[in-house]
Write a structure and sequence with these properties.
Layout (H helix, E strand, L loop, with lengths): L11 E6 L6 H14 L3 E4 L4 H4 L9 H12 L3 E5 L7 H6 L26 H18 L5 E5 L14 H14 L4 H8 L26 H26 L7 E2 L1 E2 L9 H5 L6 E3 L9 H15 L5 E5 L18 H11 L2 E6 L25 H15 L12 E4 L2 H7 L11 H14 L4 E4 L10 E4 L7 H12 L3 E5 L21 H4 L1 E6 L7 E3 L5 E3 L3 E5 L3 E5 L9 E8 L2 E6 L12 H12 L11 E6 L2 E6 L5 E3 L5 E4 L8 E3 L4 E5 L1
Parallel strand pairs: 1-2, 1-9, 2-3, 3-4, 4-5, 6-7, 7-8, 8-9, 10-11, 10-12, 12-13, 13-20
Antiparallel strand pairs: 14-17, 15-16, 18-19, 19-20, 21-22, 22-26, 23-25, 24-26
Helix pairs in contact: 5-8, 10-14
The structure holds beta-D-galactopyranose.
């Protein structure tokens, strides 16, 4: 990583290493095999707390000392974890008040990881202590390349509903509303149903059982919960910092973990690290993977990031855990690299024999090294050595999709106009259309600087502040192009509708007024006058400056606009009032976006088959063939670093293969 000479050279390769599950003679074999595979970095000690501190205040670092020395002797660098995602059994017993309480009021069981309340002062003290002990002991060990604090904050304990959390929430609200409960009442709109609070003491977490709870309360509870986890991260980070100059991070779960607002997390880590698991049953899973990588890069502010976990093959927690097909692990890995990762790491090094994850794939499978999977692992190590020069380079994009976790939460609260409204569904539909058009995209926060993009797309911006709307207005006036999908610009940060007709704060920039929503029945469709089909949504759009590009031909809004375009200043703003998908004649989202891309002057390849993913990262072009037959791609000049050399800038990529060319 640029600026982090402590990390191994080139692209880091490795995975989670859990030697405590194995007798010591296996550790020696592990290091030998790591060298064979070209492993340079392992995440060590993630679930080690009960061994390091077998009883409260009693420590034993002897096994960790030995494994660290062994890895060091073998030239494998260490991403040293604090083990605080899995508190020991004694912690639960000694500190019963720290147990996680779910929304229904169940005290969650033990015998698993997480399980603690993020606001627990006892957890805070215990986790800080073990982090400090580790940093004091290993902070300047030459094998330690970086710190892996905790593991996946907020995965199964994102929100706790215990009395400790309730009290912490009240304190958080006091600070947010300057100690004045009337400000809270005004923000949440508590005159509705007479829900006004007389003091902060009266506020309770949004526990289960009550129907139609204040949505402002629910959103603030989500924000408070992010802050509780962030505080835990910061506390450990600050315990480590005085003893170590190595980069400190924690592994995010973009985009799987809805409750964590990673825009807020990004500034807290020295390098962004992400875990991504392919949804193997989805035929287009590789497109969702590309989206996750682009979103991670964007959260990292465009800087290189680290793929901290993915899988060599099947996971153990999907309904049907499909193995990866031949070449798929390599394509997945290199897609992450193409889109900005400076590492390829897996969960985990050696497949477990015990516990919940014994059927999860690993770098060393149960089948051992005489297996295709192991040969693929060794081959990938070789690929990554050849790609060392990619490290540190950037990906640039001309198009940005707006992504906001707060809008994601708000859109999917109860009592929306339709249960078919889904944040991810629209986001993925637009992402996929752009992917198939061979357009590389960034993601941006709606209030962030988007001035450098030719096109900004807002597939799901239900919650949008006035400041963000002004940001978009300025962007279009200055010559930007904007596409907005239905049910956007509707509410403020407290889920209160913006005054006046829909689409609220986006009315002016879009040049439309929406009189009424007409969500469609389950599986219902409408036709547009260009023959396209819409799903989920129809609404009565009245142009107020915009021109109709398409009208509804059927359904409750037949004869009224379905797609509009508003020339504004030096730019234009498009509005799409139904769910379009794919390619004409079915639905035409790609054709629509194609026209917008052309109008915005976005460069794109039109000569590639849809199964080819072509991404430029710095001086390298990655050509990934997801199809079943070889493809010939012209216009890629340079030296092939991976895959066959081309002639006159034309490369042939075998079925399922990857070619990387350096310019
Ligand atoms: C991750 C987690 C790992 C392992 C993996 C299995 O979410 O960090 O420890 O459980 O999932 O896919």
């Amino acid at each position: 990583m640029p600026g982090y000479p402590e990390l191994p050279e080139g692209l880091a390769y490795g995975g989670d290493y859990n030697p405590e599950q194995w007798p010591e003679e296996i550790w020696h074999e592990d290091v030998r095999l790591m060298r064979e595979a070209g492993v340079t970095l392992v995440s060590l000690g993630i679930f080690n707390w009960s061994l390091l501190e077998p009883a409260e205040g009693t420590y034993d670092f002897s096994a960790l000392d030995r494994v660290i020395d062994l890895l060091h002797a073998g030239g494998v660098r260490i991403d040293l974890a604090t083990p605080t995602s899995s508190p020991p059994a004694w912690f639960r017993r000694n500190h019963p008040g720290s147990r996680l309480v779910d929304r229904e009021g169940h005290v969650t069981g033990g015998a698993s990881r997480h399980g603690f309340c993020p606001s627990s002062p006892d957890y805070a003290a215990a986790s800080e202590r073990i982090a400090r002990r580790l940093a004091e002991r290993y902070g300047d060990h030459p094998a330690v390349a970086m710190w892996h604090v905790h593991n996946e904050y907020g995965w199964t304990n994102a929100q706790c509903y215990c009395e400790t959390s309730a009290a912490a929430f009240r304190g958080w609200l006091r600070a947010r509303y300057d100690g004045e409960v009337q400000r809270l009442n005004a923000a949440w709109g508590t005159t509705f149903w007479g829900l006004t609070y007389g003091s902060f003491e009266e506020v309770e977490p949004p526990r289960a059982g009550a129907v139609g709870q204040l949505t402002g309360l629910q959103l603030d509870y989500a924000r408070f919960s992010v802050d509780a986890h962030l505080a835990n991260f910061r506390r450990e980070r600050e315990a480590i910092r005085p003893h170590s100059d190595r980069p400190i991070t924690t592994n995010f779960m973009i985009p799987a973990c809805k409750p964590m607002d990673y825009w807020r997390w990004a500034g807290e880590v020295d390098v962004v690290a992400n875990d991504h698991y392919l949804t193997a049953a989805r035929p287009d899973g590789h497109i969702e993977l590309a989206m996750a990588a682009d979103l991670t890069r964007s959260v990292a502010g465009g800087r290189p990031w680290m793929l901290m976990e993915h899988s060599t093959g099947a996971v153990n927690w999907q309904p049907r855990n499909l193995a990866k097909r031949p070449g798929e692990m390599r394509r997945n890995s290199l897609t992450h690299v193409a889109r900005g990762s400076d590492s390829v790491m897996f969960f985990q090094w050696r497949a477990s024999r015990q516990g919940a994850e014994k059927f999860h794939s690993a770098m060393v499978p149960h089948a051992g090294t005489d297996s295709d999977l192991w040969r693929d692992v060794v081959g990938l190590g070789d690929d990554l050595r050849r790609l060392a020069g990619v490290r540190g380079s950037a990906v640039s994009a001309e198009v940005a999709l707006l992504w906001d976790w707060e809008s994601y939460w708000a859109l999917e609260l109860e009592w929306r106009p339709s249960v078919d409204l889904s944040y991810r569904e629209r986001m993925e539909a637009y992402y996929e259309a752009l992917w198939r058009e061979h357009v590389t995209v960034d993601f941006a926060h709606p209030a962030g600087d988007v001035s450098g993009y030719r096109l900004v797309v807002a597939p799901s911006s239900y919650l949008l502040t006035e400041a963000a709307a002004k940001n978009l207005h300025r962007y279009v006036e200055a010559g930007g192009h904007l596409v907005v999908s239905y049910f956007s610009g509707i509410v403020d940060e407290h889920d209160v509708t913006h005054p006046g007709p829909y689409p609220g704060v986006l009315r002016d920039v879009l040049g439309v007024r929406v009189e009424e929503f007409h969500p469609l029945p389950e599986h219902g469709t409408v036709r547009l006058d260009g023959g396209e089909q819409g799903r989920v949504w129809s609404e009565r759009v009245r142009p107020a400056g915009a021109e109709a590009v398409r009208a509804f031909a059927t359904g409750p809004d037949a004869g009224h606009p379905a797609v509009t375009r508003h020339p504004l200043g030096a730019g234009s703003a498009w509005y799409v009032a139904t769910a379009l998908d794919g390619t004409a004649p079915a639905s035409g989202l790609r054709e629509l976006l194609g026209a917008v891309l052309d109008g915005a002057g976005v460069a794109r390849r039109r000569d590639l088959p849809e199964t080819v993913e072509l991404v430029r990262r710095g001086a390298h072009t990655f050509v990934i063939n997801h199809g079943d037959s070889p493809v010939t791609v012209p216009g890629v000049t340079g030296t092939a670093v991976l895959g066959g050399t081309g002639h006159g800038g034309t490369v042939t990529v075998p079925a399922g293969g990857v070619t990387v060319v350096r310019h």
